């Protein structure tokens, strides 16, 4: 049959961010397609200089974003959630890899009014829209409790890699807002970031196992870049670990590489975080997993969620 006789199917759009590959690709990373800051024209509290910092580094740290009284009421809300016996053993409550201590609670903006208010607080949402450049919804929310002594770390990863592969997030139009509820020191396992890493997408090796989140939310092994690639990235860009008082805000791009060490201090190192995704970037089918993950990990715009849902 000659080539001319072949009917030409509509071109299939190739995935711009292929990941969970069978083998290490020839090039360890490729350049990101989307701009990082898309809402410079929108009104909001972030200055041009702060937006430039975010664009260049993939994160922005604002010490003392919330005053102590507000931190105190959020800490109380966190304790209320952690003390709910009926939330223990639920899929959205994650325990540490080798103890029964709580590591994370997800969907907190549906579980507690204080976090619902915070997710809608214009001090946050205006900043978010200055970065995303359009209407947003909360894709994910969580508390990371990181108990003293028992709280284990998080391996280096890009959140977008997971959300693209396992939740079907199409493009890099999401930003995380993390508010620390305890002081962050160098010794209680603060979040570390690789500044500038958000500009490169690193495909990861290894197919996504079924029900991967049950493992990955305790210790992530799949969806993490190789040590060789991380070493190359870190020798280019270095590592930053913003420390500061409770109430500080860290905004970080969905593709900024980050991780943290265990908490070796006696006290918890806790934070609450919201992932804001642009509405036109809502998730559909996962790009590199058989099934989309439960909704407590990836909400949909305008859809409510309750503790009995999955
Ligand atoms: O799997 C997830 O969606 C989550 N896991 C990590 C380690 N960071 C981002 C996100 O909350
Ligand atoms: Fe993360």
CATH class: Mainly Beta
H and E string: EHEHEEHHHEEHEEEHHEEE
User: What is the molecular shape?
Assistant: globular
- What structural class is derived from the secondary structure elements? alpha+beta
Low-confidence stretches: 1-5
Gap from first CA to last CA: 51 Å
Q: How many structural domains are formed by the residues?
A: 1
Largest sheet: 7 strands, antiparallel
Chemical compounds bound to the protein: ligand 6CS, fe (iii) ion
Tell me the fraction of residues in β-strands, as a range: 15-25%
Mean pLDDT over the full residue set: 95
Helix content: 10-25%
Structure characterization notes:
The chain is α+β, with helices and mostly antiparallel strands and 310 residues long. The protein has one domain (57-200, 211-302): Jelly Rolls. The chain contains 8 helices and 12 strands. It has helices at 48-57, 68-82, 108-111, 113-120, 122-132, 159-167, 212-216, 227-237, and strands at 30-31, 59-62, 93-95, 102-106, 136-144, 154-157, 174-180, 191-193, 200-201, 249-253, 258-260, 271-278. A 7-stranded antiparallel sheet has the order 2-10-7-12-5-4-3. Strands 6-11-8 form a 3-stranded antiparallel sheet, with helices on one face. Strands 1-9 form a two-stranded antiparallel sheet. The chain starts with 29 loop residues before the first strand and ends in a 32-residue tail after the last strand. Residues 1-5 have low confidence and may be disordered. The chain binds ligand 6CS and fe (iii) ion. Ligand 6CS binds at residues 140, 142, 154, 157, 159, 162, 216, 220, 297. Ligand 6CS is lined by residues 140, 142, 154, 157, 159, 162, 216, 220, 297.
């Amino acid at each position: 049959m000659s080539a001319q006789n072949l009917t030409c199917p509509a071109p299939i759009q190739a995935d711009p961010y292929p990941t969970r590959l069978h083998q290490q690709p020839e090039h360890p990373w490729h350049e990101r397609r989307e701009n990082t800051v898309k809402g410079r024209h929108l009104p909001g509290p972030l200055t041009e200089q702060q937006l430039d910092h975010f664009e260049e580094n993939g994160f922005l740290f604002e010490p003392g974003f919330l005053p102590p009284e507000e931190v105190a009421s959020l800490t109380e809300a966190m304790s209320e959630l952690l003390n709910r016996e009926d939330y223990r053993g639920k899929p959205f409550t994650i325990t540490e890899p080798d103890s029964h201590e709580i590591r994370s609670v997800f969907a907190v903006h549906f579980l507690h009014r204080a976090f619902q208010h915070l997710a809608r607080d214009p001090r946050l949402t205006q900043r978010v829209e200055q970065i995303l450049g359009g209407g947003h919804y909360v894709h994910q929310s969580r508390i990371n409790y990181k108990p003293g002594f028992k709280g284990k770390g998080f391996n280096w990863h890009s959140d977008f890699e997971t959300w693209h592969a396992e939740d079907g997030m199409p493009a890099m139009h999401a930003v995380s807002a993390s508010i620390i509820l305890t002081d962050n020191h160098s010794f209680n396992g603060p979040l570390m970031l690789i500044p500038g890493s958000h500009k490169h997408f690193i495909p990861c090796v290894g197919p996504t196992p079924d029900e991967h989140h049950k493992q990955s939310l305790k210790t992530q092994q799949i969806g993490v870049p190789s040590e060789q690639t991380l070493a190359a990235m870190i020798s280019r860009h270095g590592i930053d670990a913003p420390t500061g008082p409770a109430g500080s805000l860290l905004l970080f791009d969905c593709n900024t590489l980050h991780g943290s060490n265990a908490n070796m201090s006696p006290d918890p190192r806790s934070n609450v975080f919201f992932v804001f995704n642009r509405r036109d970037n809502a998730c559909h089918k996962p790009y590199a997993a058989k099934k989309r993950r439960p909704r407590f990990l990836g909400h949909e715009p305008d859809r409510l969620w309750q503790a009995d849902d999955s």
